[in-house]
Design brief:
Length: about 70
């Protein structure tokens, strides 16, 4: 996987869809008694990002998050 940055422009509605989807993923991980650290961190980043300019940084993910 290449490391790099991407910028996507989202409105409030689109941002909320992503947060809800991540929360569903988090709930699934909790039900499976798996760690939610990566999803938690991403939810925080998206929540705090400027709603017009969401910057996404792509990094190598640890295998245990998959």
């Amino acid at each position: 996987m290449r490391s790099g940055k991407a910028r996507i422009d989202l409105d409030e509605y689109e941002r909320n869809i992503i947060i809800r989807a991540l929360n569903d993923m988090r709930n699934d991980l909790l039900a499976e008694e798996r760690t939610t650290d990566a999803v938690d961190e991403l939810m925080i980043k998206i929540h705090h990002a400027d709603e017009r300019h969401l910057r996404v940084c792509e990094e190598k993910a640890d295998e245990h998050y998959r």
